[in-house]
Each structure stands twice: as structure tokens, then as C-alpha cells.
Design brief:
This protein is an all-alpha fold. It contains 16 helices and no strands. The protein is globular and about 65 Å long.
Length: 317
């Protein structure tokens, strides 16, 4: 058994652990490694291995968000090997490892891990927590399915002038709901097919009573809902393109929308990031830019911040 945490350890962890969780949102992998190293030095001498593994899961999730999939996979596999299969820690590592393989478009391996994850969710005794985990996991898996389905390295890269013009048109002529509908209309068939495949894998081992915890399935008929989920998937890309407080675009944006808008900062940042991911659907890039312009910096960056898959002690959503 580990020794009780000292007051100094508790105070230091109360600062370091929230900082590490915030790294997941910003995908700041180097900062996450630095913080996780400090937590390890703090916890390992007193034998608090479970809490240390939890911190490392935050580090590995940050690696996933930064698209450093090799590091993330090795890390989650380590957590799985070191933790009891009946713990939340094990379940979260298993689920995030499934997401790593889905991100790589390794559907067979992802399916195998999704099935194991669903089986392990039954270890959560609380109905509310089980419902919460089902919602987070299926939502994240569907977001990743859309994201993977949008990536096409063979297509021509996005053109900034074209995207900026489309974004301006959307801002002037469409409401938020109408923009989301337009996004839903251009989600490609390969993404919709992957959504169905992931959903089927998820439900394969899901006990009938828990099926009511899942959101309704997405398909070609649910254009608005598809748009909402596509927007959620793309916020992992778009949010980081424009919401880092250290970036020039965020600093300029916080000084007034006109400065950013005139210089095509928003569209430019999104186009550059989408191109780096090989996301080449013009309407999606223009819609993401239009939503950012409509909301303004503070509201957009707060509303569309990516959500972690892991559930903190006080998380209610």
C-alpha cells in the first residue's frame, strides 16, 4: 500500500494535474511530457502507481491529440498491462487505444478493441457513470470515424482564396443551423459507411438495457445531426488552428475581428491545418471558418474546445 499523500504532494498535484489535463485540449505534447515527468518524480517514491498511471493516460491522450500515434499506442498498451481489467483506468486506456487504431484506419484492430471496451464498461456499477462513459465513447468513436472518412491525401489541397470567399458567403447568408446542415450534406459516403461499421461493432457486445444510453445512429438521412457531429470532429483540427493563446491569430483576433477578417487569418489558419491533415472538402473548411467568424474568438474557443474522452472525478457531462 502507498503511503498517504503529504500536504505538499497534494498542493503540488492540485496544480500539476489540471495543467496536464489542459494539455489534452491544446494537444501540447511537449508540455504534457514535462508535467508528467514532474508528477512521476512526485508520486513514484511514495508508491502511488495508480495515480501515476492516470497522469500518464492524460499524457498519452495528449500524444493522440497531437497525432503522435506510435507514442500514444505504446503508452496505452503499457497502462493496459499494468492495470486491473476491472478498473476505469484500464477501460479508458483500452478505449483510447481503439481510437488510435481507428485514427490509423486500422478497422480490424479498432473493432477488436471497441468490443473489449464495451464488455469492460459493464464493470462500472453506477448507471449514471456507465451512461456517461457510453455517451463519451460512442460519440468520440463516431467523431473519429468522420475524421478518418474525410482524409484523402490523393485530392488536391484546399485553396485559401476559394475557402475565404465561401466562408464570407456563409457568414452573410446562413445561420449556424444552416451552416451545420451544409456540413452534413458534404460528409462523404466512406465516412458514413465507417460510422455504420463502428456502430455495429459497438452494439455487438452491448447488453440490451444499455442500448438506451446511446445517441441515435447517424446516417445519410440525418444531415443536420451529421453536420453537428462533423463539426465536433473537425473542432479537434479547427480549434487548435485558431485558439492557442500563444498564436499570432488568437492575439490578433482578441484585438478585434476586423483585423483578422481583413487578413484572412481565420480561413488561412484553417486551410493550412486542414491541408496538413489532408482534409480537402472545401465546404467543411469554409463552414469551420464561418462558424469561427460568427461566434468571435472568446465564444468560439470556449464553445468548441475539444472534450477529453476520460472522465474526471467531478465531470458531470
Amino acid at each position: 500500500m502507498p503511503n498517504p499523500l503529504s500536504e505538499k504532494q497534494k498542493n503540488t498535484l492540485s496544480i500539476l494535474e489540471p495543467e496536464l489535463r489542459r494539455c489534452v485540449i491544446s494537444a501540447d505534447f511537449e508540455r504534457a511530457k514535462n508535467i508528467a515527468g514532474k508528477i512521476q518524480k512526485l508520486l513514484r517514491p511514495t508508491g502511488h502507481e495508480t495515480r501515476l498511471l492516470q497522469a500518464k493516460n492524460w499524457l498519452y491522450e495528449t500524444a493522440l491529440e497531437a497525432n503522435n500515434l506510435t507514442y500514444a499506442k505504446m503508452g496505452f498498451e503499457g497502462t493496459i498491462n499494468k492495470s486491473s481489467p476491472r478498473t476505469r483506468l484500464h477501460l479508458e486506456a483500452l478505449s483510447l487505444l481503439a481510437i488510435c487504431y481507428l485514427r490509423e484506419n486500422n478497422i480490424n484492430k479498432a473493432r477488436e478493441l471497441i468490443i473489449k471496451s464495451v464488455e469492460n464498461i459493464n464493470n462500472i456499477k453506477s448507471n449514471e457513470r456507465r451512461k456517461q462513459f457510453h455517451r463519451r465513447l460512442i460519440t468520440r468513436l463516431e467523431e473519429e470515424s468522420i475524421l478518418v472518412g474525410l482524409i484523402d491525401p490523393k485530392k488536391q489541397k484546399l485553396d485559401l482564396t476559394e475557402i475565404d470567399a465561401q466562408a464570407v458567403k456563409l457568414v452573410m447568408s446562413k445561420s449556424e443551423d444552416q451552416i451545420l446542415l451544409e456540413m452534413g450534406k458534404v460528409v462523404p459516403k466512406q465516412a458514413i459507411d465507417l460510422l455504420a461499421e463502428v456502430r455495429n461493432a459497438y452494439q455487438l457486445r452491448l447488453p440490451a438495457p444499455d442500448r438506451k444510453y446511446l445517441p441515435p445512429p447517424l446516417n445519410e438521412k440525418t444531415k443536420k445531426e451529421l453536420g453537428v457531429r462533423a463539426n465536433s470532429a473537425l473542432k479537434r483540427v479547427a480549434w487548435r488552428a485558431i485558439c492557442s493563446p500563444d498564436s499570432d491569430i488568437y492575439k490578433a483576433w482578441s484585438q478585434g475581428l476586423t483585423v483578422v477578417y481583413d487578413k484572412k487569418y481565420i480561413a488561412g489558419a484553417i486551410v493550412a491545418t486542414f491541408n496538413s491533415w489532408s482534409i480537402t472538402t472545401a465546404m467543411l473548411a469554409a463552414s469551420a471558418a464561418a462558424l469561427a467568424i460568427k461566434f468571435g474568438a472568446e465564444v468560439f474557443c470556449e464553445t468548441f474546445a475539444p472534450e477529453s474522452m476520460m472522465i474526471g472525478r467531478n465531470d458531470k457531462k
